[in-house]
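User: Okay, second chain of the day. Same drill as before: sequence in, structure tokens out.
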Amino acid sequence: MSRTGWNDYNWQLVHALPQPPALHMALDEVLTDEVAARRRPPTLRVWEWSASCVVIGRFQSLRNEVDAEGAQRHGIEVVRRISGGGAMFIEPGNTITYSLYAPESLVAGMSFQESYEFMDAWVIDALQGLGIHAWYQPLNDITSPGGKIAGAAQTRRGGAVLHHVTMAYDIDSTKMLEVLRIGREKLSDKATQSAAKRVDPLRSQTGLARADVIDKMVTTFRTRHGLAAGRLSADELDRAKALAASKFSTAAWTGIVP
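Assistant: Same drill. Structure tokens below.
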């Protein structure tokens, strides 16, 4: 497979109203498949969340990652995505999430590490434009002198690559530690408040509103690679809703690795 470049494509932006966690998981599967089938152009999708949740990676153990009692107490849904990587604690106003859907030829011949760095380059450019000294930290983090800013995950299927990133705009570290087991283990030898030092939110680093950070990201992508306004088609949304119901909101899928 010969490699293609960012600017070989007519990129489209999808930024819809807030949607539930299981629907976001389903949209990632549907839109990846649509790009693979060449029914949709390569797309940047900025997510808006309608509810708090924990998103676990495809291969993670549900019970190892999530404190079920803590999640239930805080009313936090747990969903599983189709890509690997680690667990993400999501609160709608505190999180910036986006997905890139592209032909696999964009990362042809690259290792996963090379493709992560390649797919994150534009957003690091955007963060640096906001005055943040940000860099790619292998394998799948974007970090700064103050701590981690974002975590990425990726999968390749049917001739397309899905690359998605969750960024911490703000964070309730106390609640996160009551819901995620992994955070607790990493911090077992430190004070709980040090969670805030491991993840350094964009709000504290920029002083900007969440919408302004997103606008800078979108503008940077558009300047580098071109980006036209787009939307989800009725068919894509219908298929994603059906998939959310039949797969991503089911105990069978969420607990596929117990």
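The chain has a mean pLDDT of 93.

User: Thanks, on to the next one.
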